[in-house]
Amino acid sequence: MYINICKKLRPQNILDISGQNHLVGNNGIIKNILESNKIPNMIFYGPPGVGKTTIAKIISSKSKMKAVYLNGTNTSSQEIKEVILQSEKIDSQNGILLHLDEIQYLNKKQQQTLLEAIEEGNIKLIACMTENPCFYIHDALLSRCMVLKFESLKPQDISKILIKAIDTLKKELNMNILYSDNVVEHISNFCLGDVRKALNTLEMCVLSSQTINGEKNITIEQVTAITNSKSLPYNKSGDDHYNLLSAFQKSIRGSDPDAALHYLAKLLEFGEILSCCRRLMICVCEDIGLAYPQIIPIVKSCVDIAMNVGMPEAKIPLADAVILACISPKSNSAYLAINKAFEELNSKDCGFMPGYLSQSPNPDFKSSKNSSYLYPHNYKNSWISQQYLPLKIKNSKYYKYGKNKNEQAFKSYWENIKNKTNYNW
Fold it and tell me: pLDDT at position 247, please?
């Protein structure tokens, strides 16, 4: 019976693992754990196809504990309770090693049930997930586990695995397989660090190629045809979503139009037009702001056009907005100012507004000599020295002029006006 190449090549020993040298290489954390024969509770997280489940299975096979496997996507509370009951039986005297895939799908109550079990020490947990556990795992459970991050494999590491896979397929299919270095290189780059995806792609190429004179020939044209239908790995509800939006905004903030357009294209390719538009509008307010305030309505107009026309045409006005945002002068003075205002508001008693600013009497300002509101437009340049902040924080300063041309021009304007009048509060 033909066996899937991923299953056939799954490593059975830590030394056979490709990549993850920080975990399984010389002085690697997992390598040292296995040598100590003392297994802590661990959570493995990282992209798919990088060895999380494989290493968890190797650890299970090397331990003297009874191994139990569950998958969070279809695990019930009753199944968790049954595992706990098993830990009390005589055949589990060394304890149970619970390998739990996709732990993020367990609800809070299920995670708490698991917490009680591992607290006793009869159950050791090795959980695997593709998302950052900080967002999905109960804090109490997280604090009792060692969190280890797995990295995507490098193309050169995957190339070695693919060559080994071709040799294995030759034996499995009992025929010669011809290929070029370009074929291996293309698949290695296409899979974006996912070994499972690389092996499945290779297997598809081999099985779909014609057999001529007892041999198969994998051509670069065939590989390109298969990989052209690829869908990039992406999780809309997890790290991928927030990381991509973060890269998008940071590229605009860093004034790099090429990088910003790259991430814009990715966001639109993944159907993230709403998130993209929201982040773009926030970005121009936060990172450009008063250096070029006219950009805010311009970007809003581009967003409105994009939402009205939809994809694929929406990419054009959004590209206009992104490029303009990248090449515009930058200032975060308003962003910093409002944050300071919130920080003071939430850290102290700021008191009441001056009575002359409100429509009702204010005891804080009964004795103030400025007890009547001065209407600025009645004075030269529409300005008169007057206290607006509450008495308790009258000397607070939130806004600091940015060093861009626009804000410096406003600064000079107001310094010229205000310096001609003595403050008399």
Answer: 94
